[in-house]
Write a structure and sequence with these properties.
By secondary structure, the chain is α+β, with helices and mostly antiparallel strands. The protein has two domains: 74 residues, no CATH class; 35 residues, no CATH class. Helices cover 22% and strands 21% of the residues. It is built from three helices and six strands, in the order ββαβαβαββ. A two-stranded antiparallel ribbon has the order 1-2. It has a two-stranded parallel sheet with strand order 3-4. It has a two-stranded antiparallel ribbon with strand order 5-6. It is globular and about 45 Å long. The two termini are 26 Å apart.
């Protein structure tokens, strides 16, 4: 794993694991390592992580530390049911210039992990 500053490309921390280590092992620990590597008074503001980071502990940490996040959700039946619902308000996905991307769409929804009270939108 590589933690870096998006604006500058500077590497904050790395974790090169053996091939037999699960991708979701201690991702929260790595996020905390990245935070600890930053200068005092500097905090992680945004986090983007793949499906290995779709963990309640990471989402809770982001809420508790005011970190905006984008985490690819693992597909499950409840998400599939939402995605195929014809009544959802799908909108075209747009690029940086505001132009619709052909064949791609998005919509906002509420999704809950387990019995957590906070909703993910």
């Amino acid at each position: 794993m590589v933690g870096h500053i998006a604006q500058t490309g500077q590497i904050v921390a790395t974790d090169f694991r053996a091939g037999n280590v699960s991708p979701n092992t201690d991702n929260l620990g790595f996020i905390k390592t990245c935070q600890d590597a930053l200068s005092k008074g500097t905090n992680i503001k945004k986090l983007r992580i793949d499906a290995a980071g779709y963990q309640a502990s990471i989402i809770d940490y982001c809420f508790e530390n005011d970190i905006e996040f984008s985490i690819r959700a693992k597909m499950c039946q409840s998400l599939k049911d939402i995605l195929v619902d014809k009544d959802n308000q799908w909108q075209p996905l747009v690029d940086k210039k505001g132009k619709a991307i052909d064949g791609q769409a998005t919509f906002r929804m509420r999704h809950f992990m387990g019995d957590k009270v906070k909703s993910l939108i």
